[in-house]
Amino acid sequence: MKGNIGVTSDNIFPVIKKFLYSDHEIFLRELVSNAVDATQKLKTLASVGEFKGELGELKVTVSVDKQKKTITVSDRGIGMTAEEIEKYINQIAFSGAEEFLDKYKDDANAIIGHFGLGFYSAFMVSKQVEIYTLSHKEGSKAAHWSCNGDPEYTLEEIDMKGRGTDIVLHIDDDNLDFLEDAKISGLLTKYCKFLPIPIAFGKKKEWKDGKEVETEEDNIINEVAPAWTKKPSDLKEEDYTKFYQTLYPMSEDPLFHIHLNVDYPFNLTGILYFPKVKNNIELQRNKIQLYCNQVFVTDSVEGIVPEFLTLLHGVIDSPDIPLNVSRSYLQSDGNVKKISSHITKKVADRLQEIFKNDRTQFEEKWDSLRLFIIYGMLSDEKFYERAEKFVLFKNTENKFFTFEEYKTLIKDNQTDKEGNLIYLYANDAVEQHSYIQAARDKGYDVLLMDGQLDIHWVGQLEQKFEKSRFVRVDSDIVEKLIRKSDEPKVELSDLQRESLTTVFSSQLPKLDKTEFIVTFENIGAEAQPLVVTQNEFMRRMKEMSAMQGGGMMSFYGEMPDSYNLVVNTAHPLVDKVLKDEETKCIAELAPFEAKLQELKTRRDALKESHKGKKDEEIPQAEKEELEAIDKQSSEATESKKAVVSNYAVNNPEVRQLIDLALLANNLLKGEALSNFVKRSIQLMK
Ligand SMILES: Nc1ncnc2c1ncn2[C@@H]1O[C@H](COP(=O)(O)OP(=O)(O)OP(=O)(O)O)[C@@H](O)[C@H]1O
């Protein structure tokens, strides 16, 4: 018999070849899974008593004949009658084929999935495809179908011994590489490794008399009952670890696993593993593998699981994920959304459970878990809400706290005068050591926020926590990190301020892309004389800009690092500097001061006498004198400024104080540092 494949559009084959080109290795997956399906169906029929014959050894065999240039996939499943071939193979029964092809022409996978074209994917690599099949139904006649890639096919009755189906592909000249054993074996391992029916490819080999020889035994490439298909109660911890090693042979063992098992409102099984995360997201090479009834589909699960969960490893198997559709469609699919949020919930539940049952273990593994958890909190609102209960803060003493516990800990001592709770943190325990120490000496607790995502996390927590702020320990002098009452006033005259600023800023080392602002605080005789701090807001802006770049943020990125040199006016050493240097500086400034004062007095007197007078009533001479006074005043101011800026201090004590403060902030480096050491030795003598 001869006939035409029932496609209303001219020809489906060019479409298959053209649009599926990039993915054409999937033909093997499609044929082997059809063979497995046919075998499973037979087992089902047997189990309900509808098939009474001998089942025999049920396996699927893949074989390659290099001479004939064929690949054959054989099964002992239900087989097909000629009528069934007619119905399932010949009638690619879709209406409006042209419209359909038009719509999906850019999305090859959608074509296969939508219309059960799995079998036809064979034509991506073949110039001719044959089916030899004998149905399990009693009294059936075997059939042979052949088609060479145009709509014409032949279908005839033949003699065949055993039940089942052989699909024979005559590989076309462009695809001869598929005849290599290594290629087929690679594809079978990729797509068929966990199929539920044994898949044989060639024979097992063994070493005999120094060479490798084939044995009689089939080489079975798959594991028919992978761990995720079993009941969690039937598995031990080491079974999970062993399965992880099968999936990712080169990897370190994972931290925890989650066994997923859902049958309503969708079907999903799988095992997810928490890997040992290094502090770097990019390094997570092991991907979650997605299966559909144990057939591997893809390892790019973006869109199916939330982004942060792609850090996990393992397997998800669901027949309910529409696999053969485009990614953009996937993300809007209701089922996929449900699956995604279900997985998120399961992951959170599992973390919560471990936290509750074994907090010690949870804390021990925290460093490996936190990147993942914080990533989740930042990117998924629902996950944030769940994670609130188990996420941990770690302080600079390596102690762990939940949000609640930490709040209780700091509530009494770290609330400022406006009622804000101040969370102090450091992002480098070594560099910020002296600031951490100062804060701890004041009875404050300091969090360690040294993770990759912590800058963002701090920002998020500030938004979430009511009346709370996060303040880095080095962002202000310890006395002002948490402002509890109004600070005592700094008692300095303008002139004193000016000369002290000059004294200190003239002694600051010149650092690249760094600027210092001298400020004054009265923090008591006991406190440090000088402290270098870095403004929290500016620092965060710069950090953000370093991470994001571009736009508004790059404006901050361009700015120099800005530090405050806080001068404690109540400290005796500062007072001494003030006295010493002030007298000298003020003495130099005095003539200008006197001049300015004199001009001011004269100006005030003139202004007073002009009060109530009209412009024309003021003598011309006086007007001119006023102008002259203004001119002289600004000249005197300029000269004074020049004196201030040229004022040279040569006070090793001042420099020593500054360097000490810089040292505490790790800003003293290189030559400045060695000079400091030399000077210290000098001063000690
Ligand atoms: N090895 C086989 N044994 C028995 N029947 C088969 C075999 N291969 C294919 N068939 C029949 O041909 C039909 C069409 O197969 P095809 O692979 O094109 O689509 P499908 O399996 O229904 O869908 P898809 O492959 O897209 O999941 C199958 O549903 C099945 O009835």
Can you tell me about this structure?
This protein is of the alpha+beta class. The protein has four domains: 2-220, Heat Shock Protein 90, CATH 3.30.565.10; 227-369, 2-Layer Sandwich (Ribosomal Protein S5, domain 2), CATH 3.30.230.80; 392-481, Rossmann fold, CATH 3.40.50; 494-534 and 561-684, no CATH class. The protein has 23 helices and 22 strands. Strands 1-6-5-4-7-3-2-8-9 form a nine-stranded mixed beta sheet, with helices on one face. Strands 10-11-14-12-13 form a five-stranded mixed beta sheet, sandwiched between helices. Strand 5 and strand 6 (152-158) form a beta hairpin. Helix 18 packs across helix 19. The longest helix is centred in the last third of the chain and has 39 residues, at 572-610. The protein is elongated and about 130 Å long. The model is unreliable at 93-97 and 110-115 (pLDDT under 50). Bound molecules: adenosine-5'-triphosphate. Adenosine-5'-triphosphate binds next to helix 2, helix 3 and helix 5. Belongs to the heat shock protein 90 family. ATP binds at residues 30, 34, 75, 80, 95-96, 165, 327. InterPro entries: HATPase_C_sf, HATPase_dom, Heat_shock_protein_90_CS, HSP90_C, Hsp90_fam, Hsp90_N, Ribosomal_Su5_D2-typ_SF.
Which structural class matches the secondary elements?
alpha+beta
Fraction of helical residues: 40-55%
Strand order of the largest sheet: 1-6-5-4-7-3-2-8-9
Which ligands does the model contain, each kind named once?
Answer: adenosine-5'-triphosphate
**C-alpha Rg (nearest Å):** 40 Å
In CATH, the topology of the largest domain is named: Heat Shock Protein 90
* Residue runs with pLDDT of under 50 for 5 or more positions: 93-97, 110-115
* End-to-end gap: 113 Å
CATH class of the largest domain: Alpha Beta
| Mean residue pLDDT | 85
Largest sheet, if any?
Answer: 9 strands, mixed
CATH superfamily of the largest domain, called what? Histidine kinase-like ATPase, C-terminal domain
